[in-house]
Amino acid sequence: MIRTEAKNSIILMAGTGITAALSFLYTRTVARELGPASFAQFAAVLAAANIVLAATGIINPTVARFSAEYSSRNRPGMIRTLAWQVGRRAAVYGSVAILAGIVLSKAAMEFLHIDSSWPIILAGLIVYGNLLISVVRGVLRGTERFGALNASNILEGASRWLFGILLLSLAANTSMALLAFVAGGAVVLLVSPLQLKKVWRNNPSEPVESEAIRQFVLPILLFSISMAVFQNADMLFAQRVLVGVDAGIYGAAVALAKIMGVLVTPFSTMMLPALTSLHNKCQKAHGTFLRIVGYFLAVVSLPMVLFCVWPDAILVGAFDSRYAGGGNVLFLLACARLCGYLSHMICLFYAAKRDFSFLVIHLPAALVLLVALNIWCGSAAVMAGTVAAVEGATLLCLIVFMTCHRRQQ
Fold first, then answer.
1. Which of 79, 251, 281, 312 would be a feasible disulfide site paired with 327, CB 3.0-4.6 Å?
2. DSSP state string for 183-211
3. Residue 282's pLDDT is what?
4. pTM for the whole thing?
5. pLDDT by residue (tens digit) across 173-227?
6. Which DSSP letter does residue 1 get?
7. Long-range contact list for 176-180, CB < 8 A, 24+ apart?
8. Counting beta carbons within 10 angstroms of the beta carbon of residue 100, is it exposed (0 to 12), middle (13 to 18) or buried (19 or more)?
9. φ, ψ for residue 319 (rounded to 5)?
10. Which residue spans within 249-393 are E strands per DSSP?
11. CB proximity list for 30: less than 8 A, separation 6 or greater
């Protein structure tokens, strides 16, 4: 088991590192081409799209959870049926997202202080593509085909960067920067059928356990909504409350702080199918969980030290001098993301065994964050401190909850 964990960790770390590098290169290109004010608009629209995606983020964990279960039972036909049924629903939800982007574009323009409706419409297209991609990656994640999963992520990142360079050379504006996301997603969808065919090969479709899936979907939806708030709400508040340049600096700090998300991705990706398999075999999962968390903390320690010691230099070096002055914001947001992703891993531990009792903590904490951001939003540093405080308190509550829950067993 430990050898498998180490192997999967190395594979996922390599793929995630390349994907993160491509993503950062594109973000850096956009930041330099657009400047702080327009980059803030770009970051805010992406945050809005990510909130919708995270709120509909039931797709990836649901498909991964049941793909892992069916794979452990050697039932590829059930995985095929699962992917087809969820894919059809994702296409419907994605169409709704596009229509919502068109209908609500004017209102969203006013709320986010954006001077064109096209970024909002493009955000709907980004959501549509990512919903479909979530089905594919959920299957690859659940069946532990991490090499294919890496290929999908890297292809999207590379395509987005290349299309982005071309589009921004034609016109350096927010719409062109977002259009590259649509193009990158389209490339991934073109090759996805080949990846899925290798999962179920020539096995015919088999009926799936629809009732078990439905019972899993509602609580994972609530969890996805609360995660969406934690990961994206502050950027929306920043674009609405802060002045253009300050909002751009906050957006740049958010982009760099997401390195925490890049580093946690291999371990959270590996955790759900690994723990699901252990629970299905009635084996203890605490040891595996703690090892995976330990791997993450070991990897994340270096960037946290760098963010603590040289935050201003990192921010200016990553972008340019127009983004100077946000070092304290970067450090606070990095601390917030670290606490948030550790909380996420604890929640995945319970989700793997269909236990969603952690929601009694996570959902109210998301509401507390929204209220707190409405009260303490006078500056970028105050907002970042608010997020860090709420994320830290949430993690502490989940650790106490997990400790008490284990003692009762």
1. 312
2. HHHHHHHHHHHHHHHHHHTTPPP----HH
3. 67
4. 0.73
5. 999 999 999 999 999 999 999 999 889 888 888 888 888 888 888 888 888 888 8
6. -
7. 177/30, 177/33, 177/34, 177/42, 178/42, 178/45, 178/46, 178/119, 178/122, 178/123, 178/126, 179/122, 180/26
8. middle
9. -115, -100
10. none
11. 39, 42, 164, 168, 177
Longest dimension (CA), the chain: 62
Q: What is the mean pLDDT of residues 345-355?
A: 87
**Residues 101/123, Cβ–Cβ less than 8 Å:** yes
For the ranges 29-43, 149-163, 348-362, the maximum mean pLDDT occurs at 149-163
For tokens 């969980």, what's the residue? 289
The pLDDT > 90 percentage for the chain reads 32
Q: What is the mean pLDDT of residues 150-178?
A: 93
Q: What are the residue ranges of helices labelled H in 104-203?
A: 105-112, 118-142, 146-170, 174-200
Task: Tell me the torsion sign for CA atoms 189, 190, 193, 196.
Answer: negative
Question: Phi then psi for 242, rounded to 5 degrees?
Answer: -80, 155
3-state helix, strand, coil in the chain (%, to 5): 85, 0, 15
Alpha carbon distances (Å) from 226 to 130, 293, 324: 19, 21, 32
Q: pLDDT band at 4, cuts 50/70/90?
A: low
* 327-351 and 59-72 helices, crossing angle to 10°: 40
Please check the confidence at residue 409 and state whether its pLDDT lies above 80. no
- pLDDT of 113 above 80: no
pLDDT score of 56: 65
CB-based contact 270:4 (threshold 8 Å): no
Quote the CA–CA distance of 106 and 136 in Å, as a whole number: 33
Q: Which of 131, 139, 157, 140 is nearest to 29 (CA)?
A: 157
CA dist 377 and 113 (Å) reads 17
Residue 3 confidence (pLDDT) above 60: no
